[in-house]
Amino acid sequence: MLIIVIDQAPELFWFVSNSLLVDEIPLKHFKNATTGERYILQELPEIVIINGDDKSIEPEKFINRMRNHVFARNVLFIVVTSDMSISYKKNLLIAGAGQVLYRGVGFSPSTKFFNSMIKWFQTKNEPDPQIFDYTPYPFTADADFTSYGRLCWINSTHCMIETNINLSPGQKIDCRNSLFTELEIEDVQLECIEKNQVGRYYQYANSLMCKIHSKAAAQDSSKINTWIGKNQNISKHKPVKIVYFESEPNYREEIKSLIKEDKRYCARGYGNLEDIEATLDFQRPHLILINRALIEKDKTKFEAIRAFVKNQLCYCITYSHGENESVEEFKKNYEFALHAHNPLDITLLESMLIKLESKLPEKQKTDPWKIYLSKHSPLSRVTLHATCKIKEVATNGVSVILPFLLSNFCGCELASNSFVTADMNRIQFFRCFNSKSISGSTSHRLIFMGQSTRDNDQLKAAIEKIAEVGYDRWLIGDTSNEKKAGKV
User: Fold this and answer.
1) 82 with 103: CB under 8 angstroms?
2) 3-class SS of residue 220
3) Which residue in 445, 446, 443, 447 sits closest to 401, CA to CA?
4) What are the CB-based long-range contacts (under 8 Å, 24+) for 25-30?
5) Alpha helices, H only, 23-122
6) Cα 181 → chain centroid
7) What is the pLDDT of residues 271-291, one digit of tens each?
8) What element of type H or E holds 207?
9) Model-level pTM?
10) Residue pLDDT, tens place only, 285-337
């Protein structure tokens, strides 16, 4: 594991170094975003910690750029800042920040919490429930739940979204999007029809094909159809997905430049074969490019590609750029792949892509009655909404009941008047720590994200009173010791 810190001054690096002293995790310090970005793309560190108050870094843009890079999309970002405004925290969460921590004059985050958070980031998909101290207190309250996603394509009646909400087929959720607002389509709900049958283009855990429900369904469908007919010029479809595995940074950039020459396909890259089965299932590529030097290091992992190619419309090309391994041996042992004698060239790549695109299932080919939205389009952003029940609170998070699952590490916001009762901001931000099923619904433990020191202090004070007099009496403001003791 490798962590880098980007900050002009050394104090943030010292804090990180002292917090992780026992763990002996390798750390690097960079004083500006340019050198930090160069190192990220070369070494692909697991975690990057940024001074959010350094205006030269522009954390929102920096994180968004890295999270949309072919290789750096899996890097996790922590922003340490004195700006606790709702808008800044929300923008960081949408950009892809994994956590936002408050640091002000004379105040730094808890080293214990920071250390626990790093351990969480290392195992975010299946975290140890004991990583964080968690002493819950009753806090029964209604809340408005919001999470985020991307609109991949839309036709008159259906759409494809990507999100960290894990809807099952048949489940519905309220949706807001600027296109629906522009077309005056009201009360939009998306009903999940199909889940994770195509690879994901963004950082989200799930791809959901959904049926669009609205207040005036027939008229609204006609509105969308008319809009599609007038906006074919904005449609950007990349039907073929490439995944490539390359450990050499310079050659990664070379392959990336080849892939950019054709706009009919998109690519994701990885520097090693770790978690290869999960990677293939997540991306569901049509073409796999892999350096044989990586295969030589662990041939058992390469067998996962054999199984994937057997069951999917997918081709695999291995290549070399100077190693001495035998191509003939690969041809004999791995007959399912094409083995190039030399480094990849654009002619070979294009011939494979033409062949692939012709074989795609009809539902994956370009449809003139769909608009395929670019990730840079504001129209691609969706917010998903539901009501939920907060059932308990702790100093570092809450537990909520929702009618659907959240993927671990899902970012979300809760708005509740009970937070106001505790003299906190009504809107609080979280990441999902873990989930479990309870009688047809799901309980989610959420960790605060970007909590200010004021809100944290007020929460601790509220918890002390709840422990002292009980939640019901605290809720109505009855916190006097005399009344609790039965005195008049």
Assistant:
1) yes
2) helix
3) 443
4) 25/1, 25/118, 26/1, 26/2, 27/2, 27/3, 28/2, 28/3, 28/4, 29/4, 29/5, 30/4, 30/5, 30/6
5) 33-43, 59-67, 86-95, 111-122
6) 25
7) 999 899 999 999 999 999 999
8) strand 206-213
9) 0.91
10) 999 999 998 998 888 888 999 999 999 999 999 998 875 567 888 898 899 99
